[in-house]
């Protein structure tokens, strides 16, 4: 089994076998991170453009670290300081970058489908680091890796995702990945952030607005952040959200005793998550960060392989 | 003199469907009949073709004045002629907005100089289409508008709509309404549903349209003005229009070819699938097809909305709404209605001729004395539409590369062949 | 069409005896074998390392630790491949610092694999000494690298193939030389 895709645009089109392969490769890179000398020369001479049209510190640093550990160079594009602010179209920005001849482009953008748009027009591999509301495939993969390491398996788990599901690309990527392993996924949150249509995204998805019901028997609890920058409808008052959906120790206790508590970060302690939960042994938040670098190293390694041979499909 | 002979004349206003010849003298129809004496007339052999009254498109955007890079009256009407349209009603959301007689006259002057089909301008309902004061209906009517609308948006509020309707009624102008609730629409780029959720694109619920249709119909009951619902896309909207008709209200509606052909499931990250109203659900499409067949829908209108490549070739979220449509309308209608067996050919012809004419308070019939506007088409001719070959300046169509069974073959306007297909 | 002729260099029995002999050589030359550790280079270096450890244990009673090294990420020819090859994990369950290591591989050829292996080891720590044990040395070195323990030397041309089969992976023990005629 190998990864024949030229781009990683999403997880929806990945088969279970391909996901398992990516997780497996990521494990090899987990090992490197434990060594005293974490830097390889594997991608020496290769360069990655980190084209972040949406602010992000964590994901960008994670990709930059991954590239650096493989010996690759990175070039940074940040929207606030880029020519997109001056009205340059995405097509032109991206062609300019292409002319610098990078080996891979990592793109985060506020518009769903922007990485697809770029991939269709460039002859360079594209990794989606988060597009609008659509997907955040590397987050989904690192979450799966974290679950798999903690619980020993990914199959047939009860997974509960809590928060602003409607606007969450993290939720969507996780749904696509975990459903392929037969997981039963429960989506929970305030009604206006919980579109009923999401139940049809994959088999075995349950919509449950009551947090207590949603948590019963869960092996994995994913708490999403409240994305104030993405909300366009009237926002729910913070106190209401805390009262109904904050992950507290009492609520987490409704899940399985060894349930993994996850959060994509950044957390707002006291809003969606009680600090005691964030720091509890069940919390895998820091492992998620470490695994993020491993997953991104694996993808940079796999997608910058040699010369492209003919038309190869794109994942996602 | 021009003799169109051997064609199958389909004229729904006279319930006529049979082989007949049509003799044209000057700009009018002189005679219609099985054998006509026409020595000295130029002959046009319409064997194997349908001869219909000239098609009317109630809804299109010609972009001149103001956005000539996307389309001009000249290029738009050339595309319209290739689609079999003999008359097109152009929307007022130009730059400047057609809200006064001088812009109306400008459009008509440009049409006289460059258009190869008839151009019937539609005037704005409010000044600048800004939803505040009324536009100059009487002056525009004298200049030549055939209806009023704030298309691109709904008429801003019920009170203004009432005034628009009362005033339009007094001048015997129909009011065309782009029905949309702005608050439910806000930020949306496609129909809300499983596809929008999967693609992560903000969705617009069907109710955003039907809420406004309900409002419009209610204000119509208050004023008795002729109300025409533009580019109707939802089952609920059609139900409201049917109910209004049942109650005897002067409400009519149109459906675009893309709405009776595609659905939200066809949407991908390609702005050629982005238009307003957005592609709707399968259930909506089925309802629209039923309405087209059973007479509840009065007209097929293209909402031809050209945009430059540069403006459309951006992320889906940022792209402007709209697709072109003149050249594919008839072929799509033949596929959806006639070849599928949903409706007889005469019904299809009605949707392009008598139906839109009625909305405008006009007639469209092949009879002596009537304008010699005819659309000749084949129900069998197989062809493939290529956007690169379009006469429009713009290429934003979801039907590029689509193969069709049936096509317009010639367009006759005021007695002259404005366009005929080369084979 | 060029025919390729396969000659057997070592039979099953010969392969077994060669590995045993190598094990004994290691014991003889390193003296205090409880200080050393074997690092098998994936793939076939791994079962070889296990067999050497077994011979050493049978001879001296000492348990020699074994680590597994994947050198994919250290190769110098990745950009020539049509796709980056699958990475396997490196598993060295002991500290490398200050240790006497013996790298174990099936065939020593250009020396590039060993160069990569040494780079990999040094990313893990600072060994005291690194030696090399190979089953077959086929010459044609492109780097200044030599093995300390060699099972069999073979003269080969660059276009020849030397195939090592080991029971644990290939179901049989055999060493073959495939020559273009």
Q: Describe the sheet with the most strands of chain B.
A: 8 strands, mixed
**Number of strand segments of chain B:** 19
Total number of β-strand segments of chain C? 8
CATH fold name of the largest domain in chain B, please? TIM Barrel
Question: What would you call the quaternary organization?
Answer: heterotrimer
The biggest chain-chain interface is: A-C, 26 and 21 residues
Q: CATH topology of one domain in chain C, which one?
A: Rossmann fold
> What is the CATH architecture assignment of the largest domain in chain B?
Alpha-Beta Barrel
Level-1 CATH class name of the largest domain in chain B:
Alpha Beta
Number of domains of chain B: 2
CATH top level class name of one domain in chain C? Alpha Beta
Supply Rg of chain B: 20 Å
**Total number of helical segments of chain B?**
14
Q: How far do the termini of chain C sit from each other?
A: 10 Å
Work out the strand percent of chain B: 15-25%
Report the structural category of chain B.
Answer: alpha/beta
**Helical stretch tally of chain C:** 4
* Strand adjacency order, main sheet of chain C: 3-2-4-5-6
- Computed over alpha carbons, the radius of gyration of chain C is 16 Å
Low-confidence runs of at least 5 consecutive residues of chain B:
none
What does this structure look like?
The complex is a heterotrimer of chains A (316), B (423) and C (181). Chain A is α/β, with parallel strands linked by helices and 316 residues long. Chain A folds into 2 domains: 16-136 and 290-303, 3-Layer(aba) Sandwich (Rossmann fold); 137-285, Aspartate/ornithine carbamoyltransferase (Rossmann fold). Chain A is 36% helix and 14% strand. In chain A, strands 7-6-5-8-9 form a 5-stranded parallel sheet. In chain B, 30% of the residues lie in helices and 23% in strands. Chain B has helices spanning 73-82, 101-114, 137-143, 158-170, 182-185, 194-199, 207-223, 235-246, 257-261, 282-294, 309-312, 329-338, 345-352, 354-359, and strands at 2-11, 16-25, 28-33, 42-45, 50-53, 55-60, 85-90, 118-121, 123-124, 148-149, 175-177, 190-191, 203-204, 227-229, 251-255, 299-300, 374-384, 403-413, 416-420. In chain B, strands 1, 2, 3, 4, 5, 17, 18 and 19 form an 8-stranded mixed sheet that branches. Chain B is globular and about 65 Å long. Chain C is of the alpha/beta class. Chain C has a 5-stranded parallel sheet with strand order 3-2-4-5-6. Chain C has a 3-stranded antiparallel sheet with strand order 1-8-7. Chains in contact: A-B, A-C. The A-C interface holds A 2, 4, 21, 25, 27-29, 31-32, 35-37, 39-42, 45, 70, 298, 301-302, 304-307, 309 and C 70, 73-74, 78-84, 86-91, 119, 122-125.
């Amino acid at each position: 089994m190998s990864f024949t895709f030229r781009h990683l645009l999403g997880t929806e089109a990945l088969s279970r076998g391909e996901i398992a392969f990516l997780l497996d490769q990521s494990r090899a890179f987990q090992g490197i991170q434990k060594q005293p000398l974490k830097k390889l020369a594997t991608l020496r001479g290769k360069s990655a453009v980190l084209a972040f049209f949406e602010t992000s510190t964590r994901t960008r640093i994670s990709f930059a670290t991954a590239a650096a550990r493989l010996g690759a160079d990175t070039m940074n594009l940040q929207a606030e300081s880029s020519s997109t602010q001056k009205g340059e179209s995405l097509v032109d920005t991206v062609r300019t970058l292409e002319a610098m001849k990078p080996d891979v482009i990592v793109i985060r953008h506020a518009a769903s489908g922007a990485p697809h748009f770029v991939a269709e027009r460039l002859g360079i591999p594209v990794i989606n680091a988060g597009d609008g509301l659509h997907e955040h495939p590397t987050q989904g993969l690192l979450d799966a890796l974290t679950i798999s390491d903690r619980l020993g398996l990914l199959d047939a788990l009860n997974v509960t995702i809590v928060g602003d599901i409607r606007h969450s690309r993290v939720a969507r990527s996780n749904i696509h990945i975990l459903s392929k392993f037969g997981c039963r996924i429960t989506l929970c949150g305030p009604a206006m952030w919980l579109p009923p249509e999401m139940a049809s995204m994959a088999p075995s998805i349950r919509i449950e607005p009551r947090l207590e019901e949603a948590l019963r028997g869960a092996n994995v609890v994913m708490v999403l952040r409240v994305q104030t920058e993405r909300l366009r409808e009237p926002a729910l008052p913070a106190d209401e959200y805390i009262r109904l959906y904050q992950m507290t120790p009492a609520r987490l206790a409704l899940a399985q005793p060894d349930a993994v508590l996850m959060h994509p970060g950044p957390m707002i302690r006291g809003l969606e998550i009680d600090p005691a939960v964030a720091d509890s042994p069940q919390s895998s938040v820091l492992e998620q960060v470490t695994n993020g670098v491993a997953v991104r190293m694996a993808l940079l390694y796999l997608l910058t392989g040699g010369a492209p041979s003919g038309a190869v499909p794109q994942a996602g | 003199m021009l003799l169109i002979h051997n064609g199958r004349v389909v004229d729904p206003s006279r319930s006529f469907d049979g082989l007949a010849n049509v003799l044209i003298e000057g700009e009018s129809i002189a005679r219609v009949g099985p054998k006509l004496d026409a020595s000295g007339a130029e002959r046009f052999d319409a064997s194997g073709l349908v001869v219909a009254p000239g098609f009317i498109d109630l809804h299109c955007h010609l972009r001149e004045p103001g956005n000539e890079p996307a389309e001009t009256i000249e290029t738009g009407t050339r595309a319209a002629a290739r689609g079999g349209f003999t008359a097109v009603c152009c929307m007022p959301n130009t730059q400047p907005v057609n809200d006064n007689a001088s812009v109306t006259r400008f459009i008509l002057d440009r049409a006289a100089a460059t258009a190869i089909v008839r151009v019937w301008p539609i005037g704005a309902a409010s000044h600048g289409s800004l939803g505040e004061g009324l536009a100059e209906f009487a002056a525009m009517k004298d200049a030549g508008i055939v209806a009023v609308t704030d298309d691109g948006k709904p008429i801003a509020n019920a009170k203004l709509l009432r005034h628009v309707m009362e005033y339009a009624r007094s001048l015997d102008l129909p009011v065309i309404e782009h029905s949309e609730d702005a608050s439910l629409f806000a930020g949306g780029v496609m129909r809300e549903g499983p596809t929008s959720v999967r693609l992560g694109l903000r969705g617009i619920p069907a109710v955003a349209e039907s809420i406004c249709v309900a409002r419009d119909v209610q204000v119509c009951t208050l004023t008795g003005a002729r109300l025409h619902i533009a580019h109707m896309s939802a089952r609920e909207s059609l139900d409201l229009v049917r109910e209004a008709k049942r109650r005897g209200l002067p409400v009519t509606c149109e459906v675009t070819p893309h709405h009776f052909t595609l659905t939200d499931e066809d949407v991908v990250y390609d702005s050629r699938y982005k238009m307003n109203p957005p592609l709707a659900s399968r259930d909506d499409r089925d309802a629209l097809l039923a309405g087209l067949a059973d007479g509840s829908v009065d007209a097929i209108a293209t909402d031809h909305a050209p945009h430059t490549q540069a403006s459309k070739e951006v992320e889906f979220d940022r792209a402007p709404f709209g697709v072109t449509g003149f050249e594919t309308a008839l072929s799509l209608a033949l596929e959806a209605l006639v070849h599928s067996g949903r409706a007889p050919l005469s019904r299809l012809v009605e949707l392009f001729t008598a139906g839109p004419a009625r909305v405008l308070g006009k007639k469209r019939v092949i009879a002596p004395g009537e304008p010699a506007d005819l659309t000749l088409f084949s129900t069998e001719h197989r062809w493939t539409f290529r956007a690169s070959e379009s006469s429009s300046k713009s290429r934003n169509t979801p039907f590029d590369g689509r193969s069709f069974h049936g096509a317009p073959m010639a367009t006759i306007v005021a007695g002259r062949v404005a366009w005929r297909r080369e084979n | 069409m060029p025919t390729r002729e396969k000659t057997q260099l070592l039979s099953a029995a010969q392969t077994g005896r060669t590995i045993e002999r190598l094990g004994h050589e290691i014991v003889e030359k390193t003296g205090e074998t409880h200080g050393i550790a074997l690092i098998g280079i994936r793939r076939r270096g791994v079962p070889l390392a296990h067999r050497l450890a077994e011979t050493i244990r049978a001879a001296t009673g000492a348990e020699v630790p074994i680590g597994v090294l994947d050198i994919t990420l250290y190769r110098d020819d990745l950009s020539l491949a049509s796709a980056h090859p699958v990475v396997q994990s490196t598993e060295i369950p002991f500290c490398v610092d200050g240790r006497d290591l013996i790298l174990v591989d099936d065939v020593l050829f250009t020396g590039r694999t060993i160069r990569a292996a040494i780079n990999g080891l040094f990313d893990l720590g600072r060994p005291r000494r690194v030696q090399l044990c190979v089953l077959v040395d086929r010459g044609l070195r492109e780097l200044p690298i030599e093995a300390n323990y060699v099972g069999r030397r073979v003269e080969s041309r660059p276009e020849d193939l030397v195939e090592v089969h080991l029971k644990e992976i290939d179901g049989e023990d055999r060493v073959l030389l495939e020559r273009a005629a």
